[in-house]
Amino acid sequence: MKLIIRNQIIQVCLFLFVLGCAESDVEHDSESNHSKVSINAIDYTASEGEVSQSNGQIMHKDGKSWLAFDVMIKEAGRYKIEVDAKGEGVFWIEDYYDNKDGRTYDITGKMSLSAGNEVPVKIGSPMNEGLHKIKLHVSGKNVTINELRFDLIKPHKNSPVTFTQAMDGKEWGLIWSDEFEGSEVDTTKWTYDIGNWGWGNSELQYYTVGRKENARVENGHLIIEALKDDLDYPWTSARLTTRGKESFLYGKIEFRAKVPAEKGNWAAGWTLGDAYVDELSWPYCGEIDILESVGYEVNEDGRGIAHVTVHTPAYYFKINNQISNTKEIKDITNSFHTYSVEWTPSEIRGYVDGELYYRYDKNANEMEWPFDKPQNIVLNLAIGGGWGGAMGIDSTMTSQKFTIDYVRVYELK
User: Fold this and answer.
1) What's the CATH class of domain 161-412?
2) Is 254 a catalytic residue?
3) Would you say residue 44 has pLDDT above 80?
4) Which in 32, 179, 278, 402 has the greatest CB count within 10 A?
């Protein structure tokens, strides 16, 4: 087997169960902005099925198995991951298989290979700098794995500016906003996330960058549009975040929006801790879901359900104890409604159209309360996934739109 980083090949010594290989460094050429990448020794264990080694290749026959190896990432960011293989099979990559929480971090989603197909590729997988213990999971028949490639496509950037809102006054005063005037997305305020790695939820969309078909400003509104069978992907869409631009600590975060209606969509306005770099960061970084809406909860008359939730190390959805609430909204799809949270040093309160319907006040320790650190604002429209696709996807649906009138942040003065 070979591992390739930025088209530079490292031949790795591979044995069943036991191996020995010196650590190698790969330094990118002087014209590249990418950093060094190191590969440590690897080992392989067959969990099921038959596996053999031949001329540096892994020959996989029937059943399932995985290849475990260490990758030393020198620069945090979003990566393109390719599996160079032959045969017919399905792959996915698990990161940090030795994590202390017993979590399974899928950083590619399914990567399918049929005879004669091109190398399976996933874009945008998040990887922090440091050692990654990774498993390449394989299922299929007569699969030959030749190479695994990691290519940094977007370095991680921390937010250089943090707005810390005063919370000891009596009246809300505006300190930051985007009213979506003009004709372009304001890239001094927003970064585009990129890729189709599944986003931790087996989502189907490829998030594009700077593409007006998926994110545009029209008539004073931001429109995020998901499109079916677009750019050779099942779906394209957009995800905008203030990460790398500005982050926020406390205050009132508010946006006015209308959500799409068809079964299979998943629209969200939320915050994610500025400490997030890759999947190991979550939920330790914290997350505040100001609004989440899934299309299968929208009725024919436009009534739908608004969800507000926070995720912390102590309470989050993958251990099924998240603390959330819902509210039925009349005409959630055709009329604008205002969604907000008031985030203080001790609690988070959620509102729809000024009506309080949620309170989170568990702050005994950092496992319950990671919200003493900055968060970024995120706006996105996903298709499918563990929640959005839980009831299937409307086969006649070809486009969905999430429309945002404004985003505003206030402090008490």
Assistant:
1) mainly beta
2) no
3) no
4) 402
